[in-house]
């Protein structure tokens, strides 16, 4: 609606053309007569960028003048995908541009696909951060994101002979969406030593001296809201050698090579995104990334606050900082250091400010994902921060001791320092102790953290420090409907014949589009009338892609056992997989290999034909998700109960008119509550039973589920290539305790898949389920989610801009 009052820039296809051509000829210095799709993309992006920038400047100016409380979202990952389509959707005028491009001889779809994904994230956590930025802008919250400007995002995945191969993702060649602010820099210090002294009045001082300095340079990315003039900022830090270190000292003293090496070492900090998802490996460079980014962001936030000349007491009234998992936890001791060492506040006054400022979101209970850093490493890299962490811990443990004098064991359990060899800093405890609120990301998950990893802390702080904010998703340009508040109105159309027909036609068209993609990329012809069964997400044992592929093999064996006559009664299915394995995660890579081998056999078996196809889609990412998600009939969210904190693609699939098969885990439970249990296919053991089942595996003899045993026999016989390649995968289940309960859940899974086959045959009933699902998903809008954070954690208000004159 704001657009109607603020007709800046072009509003017709002719005006768009003028702007795009001007940029192609001048900004890009390309002559029109050899204008290719790359240049047309550049011209289009720059034309829309101009419109964003005006809003962006205005928004930032208004936020500065109004000076109300702001929220800073600290995340090492922002999985943004492509920006142009989003900019067009938010600014409006996509139709003018489409028409204009058509006049110039281009198709909008081809131009959009020229853009490189901004793939600065691994999976759910990074994608959530991107959705949050979008909603914070759409709802007019004064909010900034802070992250790292990786030169290489998540690797590109190639599948060669059925194996994953990683290729670097260099994405910055031409990025019109970032603005280098070479004048906005921060010196970030590493290593060195701590100095303590007393001044003339006897006051203690502490300073951190020596070591090396790396320069953080700001790169700003505009974040436009949907149908609002608010345009927020995402500030990404790039690392550079601090001048002085490079050009003067060493360069002039003839140490040219050493100075180049210094420069490269500095630039290495922001060079690459660590490609682990839910796994912590304790690498020094990762810790350097974390401190570099926390220090630069905190300096920037404090600098902005100091310009207002307010007293330090007011800091938490002006600033909320949200920690996206424990990755930014060093921001806590860093703010304490700034206040005590640099600004001269008393420890307790400073700590009061710090712990009112931060909120911490936990995204996982998997033990291997909980961040711990070795004390010797921290001592070496961040000597002053380690001292501060010890002091925070001392104060905390004294408080615990006073309040729980009888429970001596508790002190060791809740200490920030784990007394192992080497000693370790438990980042989740530090994040919790230094924050005023801790939240989980779905109801079950928020309950689980209170009864497992943070159990003692509920006793210490009481339950009110802990809360739940269920994750959510954003509806983008390719989705069924754009306005989630209108979703519920759909329910009234569930019996409308015309609507039902159109609904099915859209789904079918989306499946045709995906079938075309599969033909082009996998060389396999799939029938768009078949049931499309999709599992796309990071490959991880807890997400159980192995359960899915074993189910596919089971289906294949069943088809093979039937007569040609009986086969005709079966429902045709396409099983579609996609997702990246962390490069060092061998079990996950084995699962990818098995899926591809099964595909080779099944897709070329003339007995099977259209009844079953198995597809692995290479390099699953945000822009591919835009093609895959709307084309699914069923998607799989089948983690071992209690392991998937929330999941967000489950919501995305439902919002796009697909049904889901899932376990009682993460947000699946709340999705069920919203859409009705008759509209979802749930199966498997419950979270409360998992511990006992695992225990039983370890201490009693256990039998493999019989149908699964048959599947394993066929793999052993070499039906899908050399069985040796899969022995670790099978042995984990047969001999090593089946930690993820694949066998325990197999019968229930296979049976539920049969129910799905039957349900899909009844097109009318299926359509009803799908429509009701979409209509009842309003709760899972990221706008709702951000309002909850704003109200219950950040205590901030929207800042609506005055109408332009
Ligand atoms: C840690 C150390 C070194 C390198 C990388 C990491 C790391 C990176 C990403 C650890 C965890 C990371 O992400 C975890 C994640 O994506 N969690 C998911 O968060 C989603 C949003 O809340 C949830 O929906 C998913 O259930 C949860 O798995």
TrEMBL record:
The modification N6-(pyridoxal phosphate)lysine is found at residue 652. It comes from the Eukaryota. InterPro entries: Glycg_phsphrylas (IPR011833), Glyco_trans_35 (IPR000811), Pyridoxal_P_attach_site (IPR035090). Gene3D superfamilies: Glycogen Phosphorylase B. One of its GO terms (cellular component) is cytoplasm. GO terms for biological process: glycogen catabolic process. Its EC number is 2.4.1.1. Its cofactor is pyridoxal 5'-phosphate. The keyword Glycosyltransferase applies. The keyword Thylakoid does not apply. Keywords: Carbohydrate metabolism, Glycosyltransferase, Pyridoxal phosphate, Transferase. GO terms for molecular function: glycogen phosphorylase activity; pyridoxal phosphate binding. Belongs to the glycogen phosphorylase family. Allosteric enzyme that catalyzes the rate-limiting step in glycogen catabolism, the phosphorolytic cleavage of glycogen to produce glucose-1-phosphate, and plays a central role in maintaining cellular and organismal glucose homeostasis. This is Alpha-1,4 glucan phosphorylase. The gene is GPH1.
């Amino acid at each position: 609606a704001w657009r109607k009052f603020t007709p800046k820039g072009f509003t017709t296809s002719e005006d768009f053309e003028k702007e795009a051509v001007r940029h192609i000829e001048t900004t890009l210095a390309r002559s029109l007569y050899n204008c290719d799709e790359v240049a047309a993309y550049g011209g289009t992006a720059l034309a829309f960028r101009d419109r964003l920038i005006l809003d962006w400047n205005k928004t930032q100016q208004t936020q500065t003048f109004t000076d109300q409380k702001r929220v800073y979202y600290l995340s090492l990952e922002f999985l943004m995908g492509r920006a142009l389509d989003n900019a067009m959707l938010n600014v409006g005028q996509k139709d003018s541009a489409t028409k204009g491009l058509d006049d110039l001889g281009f198709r909008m779809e081809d131009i959009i696909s020229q853009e490189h994904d901004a793939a600065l994230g691994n999976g759910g956590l990074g994608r959530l951060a991107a959705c949050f930025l979008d909603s914070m802008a759409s709802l007019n919250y004064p909010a900034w994101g802070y992250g790292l400007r990786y030169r290489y995002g998540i690797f590109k995945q190639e599948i060669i002979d059925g194996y994953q191969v990683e290729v670097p993702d260099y994405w910055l060649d031409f990025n019109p969406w970032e603005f280098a602010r070479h004048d906005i820099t921060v010196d970030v210090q590493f290593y060195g030593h701590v100095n303590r002294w007393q001044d003339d009045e006897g006051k203690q001082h502490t300073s951190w001296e020596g070591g090396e300095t790396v320069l953080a340079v700001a790169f700003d990315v505009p974040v436009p809201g949907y149908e609002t003039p608010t345009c927020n900022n995402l500030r990404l830090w790039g690392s550079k050698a601090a001048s002085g270190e490079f050009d003067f000292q060493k360069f002039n003293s003839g140490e040219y090579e050493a100075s180049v090496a210094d420069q490269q070492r500095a630039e290495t900090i922001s060079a690459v995104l660590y490609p682990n998802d839910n796994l912590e490996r304790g690498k020094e460079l990762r810790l350097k990334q974390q401190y570099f980014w926390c220090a630069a962001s905190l300096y920037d936030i404090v600098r902005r606050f100091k310009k207002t000349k307010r007293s330090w007491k007011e800091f938490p009234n002006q600033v909320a900082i949200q920690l996206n998992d424990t990755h930014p936890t060093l921001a806590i001791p860093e703010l304490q250091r700034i206040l005590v060492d640099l600004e001269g506040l008393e420890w307790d006054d400073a700590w009061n400010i710090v712990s009112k400022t931060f909120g911490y979101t936990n995204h996982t209970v998997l033990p291997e994902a909980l961040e711990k850093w070795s004390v010797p490493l921290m001592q070496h890299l961040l000597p002053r921060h380690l001292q501060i962490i010890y002091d925070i811990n001392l104060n905390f443990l004294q408080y615990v001791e006073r309040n729980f004098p009888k429970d001596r064991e508790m002190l060791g359990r809740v200490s920030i320092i784990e007394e192992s060899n080497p000693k370790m800093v438990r980042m989740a405890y530090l994040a919790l102790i230094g924050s005023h609120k801790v939240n989980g990301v779905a109801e079950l998950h928020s309950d689980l953290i209170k009864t497992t990893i943070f159990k003692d802390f509920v006793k210490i702080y009481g339950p009110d420090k802990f809360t739940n904010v269920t994750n959510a998703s954003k509806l983008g340009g390719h989705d069924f409907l754009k306005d989630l508040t209108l979703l519920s109105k759909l329910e009234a159309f569930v019996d409308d014949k015309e609507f039902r027909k159109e609904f099915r036609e859209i789904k079918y068209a989306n499946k045709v589009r995906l079938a075309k993609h599969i033909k082009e990329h996998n060389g396999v012809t799939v029938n768009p009338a078949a049931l499309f069964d999709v599992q796309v997400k990071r490959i991880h044992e807890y997400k159980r892609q192995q359960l899915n592929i074993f189910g596919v093999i089971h289906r294949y064996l069943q088809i093979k056992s039937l007569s040609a006559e009986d086969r005709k009664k079966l429902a045709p299915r396409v099983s579609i997989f996609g997702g990246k394995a962390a490069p060092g995660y061998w079990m996950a890579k084995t699962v990818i290999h098995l899926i591809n081998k099964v595909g080779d056999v099944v897709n070329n078996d003339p007995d099977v034909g259209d009844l079953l196809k198995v597809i692995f889609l290479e390099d699953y990412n945000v822009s591919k998700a835009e093609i895959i998600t709307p084309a699914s009939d069923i998607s799989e969210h089948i983690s071992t109960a209690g392991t998937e904190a929330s999941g967000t693609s489950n919501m995305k699939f439902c919002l796009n008119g697909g049904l889901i098969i899932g376990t009682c885990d993460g947000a699946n439970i709340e999705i069920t509550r919203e859409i009705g249990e008759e509209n979802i296919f749930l199966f498997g053991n419950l979270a409360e039973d998992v511990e006992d089942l695992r225990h039983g595996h370890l201490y009693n003899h256990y039998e493999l589920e019989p149908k699964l045993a048959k599947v394993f026999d066929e793999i052993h016989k070499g039906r899908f290539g050399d069985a040796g390649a899969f022995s670790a995968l099978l042995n984990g289940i047969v001999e090593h305790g089946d930690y993820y309960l694949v066998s325990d859940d197999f019968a229930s899974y296979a049976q539920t898949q049969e129910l799905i086959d039957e349900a899909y045959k009844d097109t009318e009933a299926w359509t009803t389920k799908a429509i009701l699902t979409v209509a009842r998903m309003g709760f899972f809008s990221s706008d709702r989610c951000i309002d909850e954070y704003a109200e219950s954690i950040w205590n901030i208000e929207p800042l609506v801009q005055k109408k332009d004159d």
